[in-house]
Amino acid sequence: MAVSFKPIRSLLQTGTNTSSRWFSYIGLGIGVLLLLCSIQMYINIQQLLGGESQRKDGSDFISISKTITNETMGLLEKNLFNANDIKDIETKPFIEGVSPLTANRFRVQLSAGDIIPFSTDMFLESLDNNFIDTVPPNFAWQEGQNYIPIVFSSDFLEIYNVFAPGYGLPQLSAETASQVVVFITCYGQNGEKQTFRGSIVALSDRVNSIIVPKNFLDWANNKFGNTTDVKASRLYIKTKDANNPDFLNYLQQKNYKVNKDKTKFGRVKQVLQGIFSGLGIFGLLVVILALMLFSFYLQLMIARSKDNLQLLLMMGYSPNWLSKNVSKQFIPVYVLVVLVALALTEGMQWAFHHFAMFDRPELSSLLHWAVMGTAVFLIGLSLLTNYRMVKKLLYKLV
Amino acid sequence: MQLQLQQVLPVYFDEDHRTQSEVWRRNLTFEKGEYIKIVAPSGSGKTSLMHFLYGMRNEYNGNIVYNSANLRNYTPEDFAGYRKDHVSIVFQDLRLFPEQTVQENIELKRQLNPFHPAEKIREMAERLGIGNKLASKSRICSYGEQQRVAIIRSLMQPFDFLLLDEPFSHLDDKNSQNAMQLMLEEAKLRNAAIIFADLERIDWFPYTRIFHL
């Protein structure tokens, strides 16, 4: 229909209260601005803190243990992980693998023989080889073998080197440490004891423990500790991202203890994302409020122009055509409002990147496509809601 | 092109009307090219009938059928097409946009489905003696002038039926005849029917059938 809307426009402008219209434009602008800024900041946080935790091999390894409280103190069963706990963890989507850290259940003494006059009670643990960062080929044990290979925590070596001089012991380099033969004496409950030779075959940055081959510890626990069912006091977990909020929530909910430092970013991210999600929801509410206010303005306008609109419909103007054209009137204003909000968001992002983040490469000074998409979506949404409402009101007038 | 009345009676009328009236509760068919005169004293439902035929109200029993389509089944869009292309009307209460000029009032109808070029507005206005009023707001025109504006407006579109509801109530005989002449010419151009409802018989309407409401 090549009918012109121009002469009809003046029939709708029945003068009067334009302030409510301007309030709704401003409200819409503020709401859109809040929403877009929140989305952009949410993405920024994702990019800043999500990138930080990516390891070279793509996964994080962390150990967790049950928090020992005054109530569970001394109750070994409650402080250890049972098969169900492990199964439950394994099913979580953010977990790539779980391995229990099994400890010795008998007394172990370690001495350095004659070269270094040093002897101490020790503990041993075993872990799946997959979870150890450095596994040399000779890290294996067979029954009857007197030699035990050990994967030693580099942190422990450092600690040893700190206190060694005080006890008149020699400080050891990583190379020397691996050449020192130590004697591991296992004591059984009935007074039996057996001494093995051992040496450090690798130092591990990842595992804070003294790791021996799993089959050795299983055998020794059976022989000296008289137990085959050894429950784990610690679990090693392989996960894509130790800072994943879902993962952290899960740990919190289960009351599992984890190295706080490893998940520090995750916790910061959790809080920040919470804040910006809240702001985003607030922005969305403001947008909805503004749209409602605008729909009241439209209803008022249509109620005021009711006689004119009714007469137009009576003359044969199509209600559909009229609704389309009435709502089309607001396209420029809506586009303008959203564009201004988009420009302000872009300014905010540029300033944030440039002044607060000093042009860090993880971020971009430009807006993320999702923000642009949201802006386009909001324009569409507001036009559609207007069109539907005007159409509904006009159909009532026919 | 037929307009049919099938047993139509306003819901707010008593059944007695059916015996007195030649329209209510009857089956009538109006064809293109006919000139129908409906003589209707006050309160007999003249304006109701016109509004029913134009599809503005549906508080009646029975059916009104245009080209075998029942008006009751029309959607709002269907009514728009019906009023734009097939049926035109001069309301008793005129229904002009008071704040628009005479020219604008007519043009609003003309642009919808132009039967005449825009220049025709001036020509008709001058012929009916309101050529000097085209630029005036319609609310400051006299009722008689407004009546002529409404008549010109109704002639801007194509139609099969032209409904007239007391179109000359505020016009003197000379002006009425003048306007009637114009409407007859325009109806002829379209081979359209005129359904003319008025309080009493008017001699200068060459009706082909007459009904007492």
UniProtKB/TrEMBL annotation, chain A:
Nucleotidyltransferase as UniProt keyword: no
Pfam families in the record: FtsX (PF02687)
Keyword Oxidoreductase annotated: no
Domain ABC3 transporter permease C-terminal: 281-391
InterPro entries in the record: ABC3_permease_C
Residue ranges of the TM segments: 22-43, 275-298, 331-352, 367-387
Topology versus the membrane: Multi-pass membrane protein
Compartment(s) of residence: Cell membrane
Source superkingdom: Bacteria
Keywords noted in UniProt: Cell membrane, Membrane, Transmembrane, Transmembrane helix
GO cellular component: plasma membrane
Protein name as annotated: ABC3 transporter permease C-terminal domain-containing protein
UniProtKB/TrEMBL annotation, chain B:
Superkingdom in the source lineage: Bacteria
One Pfam family of this chain: ABC_tran
MF GO annotations: ATP binding; ATP hydrolysis activity
Keyword Cell division recorded: no
Record keywords: ATP-binding, Nucleotide-binding, Translocase
InterPro entries: ABC_transporter-like_ATP-bd, ABC_transporter-like_CS, P-loop_NTPase
Protein name: ABC transporter
